[in-house]
Amino acid sequence: MAPKRGRRDYGSILLGSASESGFKQRLRIQTLLTASIVVANLVGAIIAIALSSVGIPEPSVFQPDLWWVNFLALPLYVAGAFVIGIGWGTIVVVRDLRWAIRDRPPTERDARRARRAPWRLVSIQAVLWIGAVVFFTLCYGIPHPELIPKTIFVFGLSGVVVVANSYLLIEFSLRPVAAELISAGYRRRKRSGVRSRAIVSWLVGSAIPVTGILLVVLFGAFRPETSKVDMFVGVAVLAVTALATGLILTLLSSLSIIGPIRSVRTALHRVEAGELDDVEVVVYDGTELGDLQAGFNLMVGGLREREHMRDLFGRHVGREVAEAALASDPELGGTEKVVAAVFVDVIGSTTLAAERSPGEVVEILNRFFGVIVAAVEENKGLVNKFEGDAVLAIFGAPIALSDCAGAALAAARTIATRLGEEVPELSAGIGVSHGPVVAGNVGAIQRFEYTVIGDPVNESARLSELAKRNPRHPLASGRAVEAARPAEREKWREAEHATLRGRTEETVVYEAVGVGDPVSEAS
């Protein structure tokens, strides 16, 4: 079964699902990248306008001879920067992610270029803002040298904010690409990725604006013409800028942390609910959080393998035996218990094998065994052995039953009825016995099996031989019938006294006289 894919495979509904078509996902990524660049630059432009006009009002950039800069050069540069940034960025993305657009597995070279794509896009924004610092410093500074420090600080701070926001937004938009690279085996571990994000958020959101506040205060202290009102306004604007940029960067940084954690948490809830076959977290983060995602997948894979082994173990030895073995360290040896044994042996198995192909024989035997297993488990017994074309079932070990004899007798009657209806190609003798046995692990410490040893096992096998005279009527020992509850005992009658093969004493033999509902055990 393929893993289920949700709307938050990459930590956000904006990134869609990992099961989306390649074209739709590429279109989504390109749209998010374009929006990321636009939003980051808009934030930078707003900060630059706020600082230059209100935050640091003096010296003023609104000089009569600078009209061409404010109303011609500045709008043209901003518009050109947006066009160049988006166009250049699109070319870079298409070139570096060509393998993803064509829906083919990435090569080592593709992986290197894809990992460099976020830095290339950020570098484009950095180049455009550095160009803005140089260009406008010259435009404002040549006619008015006193505007040089203000221009450098305003456009420099805005550019740093744009670069930081751009990187976080671009990294967010490229999560599906990162997931494809990681799933293809091209994962580059970042030793302190989470710490680096936190430092960048602090640097841009707090350190630089606070430094700007200190500079405003410092310049105001040494400029007699600066009024207290201007200083207050400047500090207030920078403080608001610090609050806004700090909030934006903190949100972006926290989202990059919350996304992987949320995906693991959601998957954990599904594991707790018992869903193991289709649980898998998409690994898209290259930091320590990606290790968390990958580790979760390894853990679930181990649990899935363990459950598979538990299931196979239970199928081979019986679920009760498997649970008992898993609950404690199994040891060789056993304990004495009172159990009931049911032995079922096919009549004419040699003739069946001679007249039919091996494939047909196996198919018939599987249906034969299926009837027996179902009837035994309905009555809380344990199918202990498949001996060629015979089956030994135990009732009362390893799990004790208050009426193990009644459960065994009911299972024998059910088997006789269902074999005639569901497996008409063959018939079998069914014998039931009851008494004390030694139940436990027999073999060597390297390889052993759970079994029961005692007279009831041998007696049930001999009774099954005797029952082959009339397979529609299972046979049981008198001890088994007498140990059962009255409701089950009434369905059996004494048939004969017989000396079974290998025994010296006579056995009181009972046969089933009717077919009733199986007796279920509550204990």
Q: How would you summarize this macromolecular structure in one to three sentences?
A:
The chain is an alpha+beta fold and 523 residues long. It has 16 helices and 8 strands.
3D structure, described in words:
- It contains 16 helices and 8 strands.
- Strands 1, 2, 3, 4, 5, 6, 7 and 8 form an 8-stranded mixed beta sheet that branches.
- It is an alpha+beta fold and 523 residues long.
- The longest helix has 45 residues, at 228-272.
- It has helices spanning 22-55, 67-96, 98-101, 108-141, 148-173, 175-183, 193-222, 228-272, 288-317, 319-327, 349-355, 358-378, 404-422, 455-467, 478-483, 486-489; strands spanning 333-346, 382-387, 390-395, 428-444, 447-453, 475-477, 492-498, 507-512.
- The two termini are 37 Å apart.
- The number of helical elements comes to 16
Biggest pleated sheet: 8 strands, mixed
The total count of strands amounts to 8
Distance between the termini: 37 Å
Task: List the helices and strands in order.
Answer: HHHHHHHHHHEHHEEHEEHEHHEE
Strand residue content: 5-15%
Label the overall shape: rod-shaped
Question: What is the typical, i.e. mean, pLDDT?
Answer: 78
Helix content: 55-70%
Which stretches are poorly predicted, pLDDT < 50 over at least 5 residues? 1-5, 516-523
Structural class assignment:
alpha+beta
Q: Report Rg.
A: 40 Å
Features of the shown structure:
single chain, 523 residues, eight-stranded mixed beta sheet, disordered C terminus
List the helices and strands and how they pair.
Elements: H1 22-55, H2 67-96, H3 98-101, H4 108-141, H5 148-173, H6 175-183, H7 193-222, H8 228-272, H9 288-317, H10 319-327, E1 333-346, H11 349-355, H12 358-378, E2 382-387, E3 390-395, H13 404-422, E4 428-444, E5 447-453, H14 455-467, E6 475-477, H15 478-483, H16 486-489, E7 492-498, E8 507-512
